[in-house]
Amino acid sequence: MIKVFDHPLSPFAQKVKIALREKGVDFELVQPMAGGDPQIAAEFAQANPLAEVPTFVHDGTTLFESSVILEYIEDTWPEPSLLETSPQDRARARLIEVVMDTQYEAINWGLGELHSFRRAEGSLLKTLLDRAAEQTSNLQAWLSRHLQDANWFCENRFSRADICVFPCLNASEKFGLAPGAGSGLNNWLERMRERPSVQKTVQETLPHQDDLERGRELIEQGLFVREYRDHRLEWMIRSGGVSVVNEGLDAGTIRFSHEFK
């Protein structure tokens, strides 16, 4: 049995689950951050030294990083294929994935820090929200240029590129930054939401919509520390929130990625 260490709100874990469901592959979901089960926590730490989701276990193979996991899924279960057929479209799909994982996801994460964890207020909050709105609009325009008038991002058929775009674009809606009604990008989003693999993955997020609010309580109690890493850290600093980072470090409410041991 395949085991996926998961948190339903993670866009990276959502990519993996949608791909597995599109291929009809059964898997077991485990939430290492839920319930404080020491056995699960120990297994998770052994599987992934970075202690990040998703982490994927199959037949003695343990993987982390969603892009690597997606490649493994395609190699192991090649049908139905989620890969584009031409080298040009495969490269374009990889490029889209990189942009979503490094640029778009960082904005959504930053908005979560502001709305749910209330890292800023007053003029600083306004500055960060304005920057996030501007950046989201720019990225959605970039995506629209790739989509053009097609139903799907590559070769006008559902593929890995669509899987990689969905989690971040879908999350924009809760921040009031969804693509405009009637736009090609919004119509694409509605088509994605009709797919059973996507519906199941979105449904799993519903019981966890309040997790971030509870997370804020845990932070205030000193029981939970948020991870600031690579593109997320860059977003906060570049957008004007260097004081947020400094205050969080001083208070011990943020950390960087775990080091390998």
Quick rundown:
With 261 residues, the protein is of the alpha/beta class. Helices cover 57% and strands 8% of the residues.
Structural features, described:
This protein is α/β, with parallel strands linked by helices and 261 residues long. It has helices at residues 11-22, 38-47, 66-76, 87-115, 122-147, 160-172, 184-193, 196-203, 211-220, 230-238, 242-251; strands at residues 2-5, 27-30, 55-58, 61-64, 226-227, 254-255. Strand 1 (2-5), helix 1 and strand 2 form a beta-alpha-beta unit. Strands 2-1-3-4 form a four-stranded mixed β-sheet, with helices on both faces. Strands 5-6 form a two-stranded parallel ribbon. It contains eleven helices and six strands.
Shape: globular
| Fraction in beta strands | 5-15%
Give the SSE string: EHEHEEHHHHHHHEHHE
Helix content bin = 55-70%
Q: How many runs of DSSP E, i.e. beta strands? A: 6
Strand order in the largest sheet: 2-1-3-4
Biggest pleated-sheet summary: 4 strands, mixed
User: What is the terminal separation in angstroms?
Assistant: 28 Å
Mean pLDDT: 94
Uncertain runs with pLDDT below 50, 5 residues or more?
A: none
Class by alpha and beta content? alpha/beta
What is the count of helical runs? Answer: 11
Query: Taking Cα atoms only, what radius of gyration do you get, to the nearest Å?
Result: 18 Å
Task: State the main characteristics.
single chain; 261 residues; alpha/beta; 4-stranded mixed β-sheet; two-stranded parallel sheet; 11 helices; 57% helix; globular
Q: In terms of topology, how is this protein built?
A:
Layout: E1 2-5, H1 11-22, E2 27-30, H2 38-47, E3 55-58, E4 61-64, H3 66-76, H4 87-115, H5 122-147, H6 160-172, H7 184-193, H8 196-203, H9 211-220, E5 226-227, H10 230-238, H11 242-251, E6 254-255
Helix pairs in contact: 1-3, 1-6, 1-8, 4-5, 4-6, 4-10, 10-11
